[in-house]
């Protein structure tokens, strides 16, 4: 019994040190506070008539860092599923396409807007009336996250290009 214990004891410091080390590595890779490297402006979510299952969120994302980043995840209590979408012309029709991520090149502003890139909210859990607001959490490829409060706005432009899923 004693030898078994002795064999295991040297392992335990490693088990503690390794997670700490990986945390330190992450911190060293992003010396600036990662969450503020992506600036979010003009963020809003589209108001939809009651009963409509889906909506979309739009915003301008500016990557203020000197590294390429990507938006990889969205989460909200206001919808069952959140996907990253773009519009593509296919067979003469504008169609929505799901993206694995939305690229945010270093130093550039990427516009999520009606008819283009958007954060798709599928299976709304609440009515989105103009004047309301929802919480939207964004996750980036460096592991940083941002929580936003998005106003719900009526959008007339681009609605024709947003077919239902
Ligand atoms: Cu969409």
Task: Describe the secondary structure blueprint for this structure.
Blueprint lengths: L1 H7 L2 H19 L8 E9 L7 E10 L5 E7 L3 E12 L2 E7 L2 E3 L4 E4 L5 E7 L8 E8 L4 E9 L12
Parallel strand pairs: 1-10
Antiparallel strand pairs: 1-2, 2-7, 2-8, 3-6, 3-9, 4-5, 4-8, 9-10
Provide the descriptors you would attach to this structure in a database record.
globular, 165 residues, 2 helices, binds copper (II) ion, 16% helix, disordered N terminus, alpha+beta, disordered C terminus, single chain, Immunoglobulin-like, 46% strand, 10-stranded mixed beta sheet
Q: What would CATH call the architecture? A: Sandwich
Radius of gyration: 21 Å
The name of the CATH topology is Immunoglobulin-like
Strand content: over 45%
Average residue pLDDT = 83
Could you say which structural class the secondary elements and strand pairing correspond to? alpha+beta
Ligands in the structure?
copper (II) ion
Principal-axes shape call: globular
What portion of residues is helical?
Answer: 10-25%
Largest sheet: 10 strands, mixed
How many distinct domains?
A: 1
Poorly predicted tracts of residues: 1-5, 11-34, 159-165
Number of distinct beta strands: 10
Keywords: Signal
Organism: Halochromatium glycolicum
Protein name: Copper chaperone PCu(A)C
Signal peptide: 1-27
Structure, described:
The chain is α+β, with helices and mostly antiparallel strands. It has a single domain, classed as PCu(A)C copper chaperone (Immunoglobulin-like), CATH 2.60.40.1890. It is built from two helices and ten strands, in the order H-H-E-E-E-E-E-E-E-E-E-E. It has helices at 2-8, 11-29, and strands spanning 38-46, 54-63, 69-75, 79-90, 93-99, 102-104, 109-112, 118-124, 133-140, 145-153. Strands 1, 2, 3, 4, 5, 6, 7, 8, 9 and 10 form a ten-stranded mixed beta sheet that branches. A hairpin with a 2-residue loop joins strand 4 and strand 5. The longest helix is centred in the first third of the chain and has 19 residues, at 11-29. The protein is globular, with a radius of gyration of 21 Å. The chain starts with a helix and ends in a 12-residue tail after the last strand. Mean pLDDT is 83; it is low at 1-5, 11-34 and 159-165. The site of copper (II) ion has 5 residues, from strand 8.
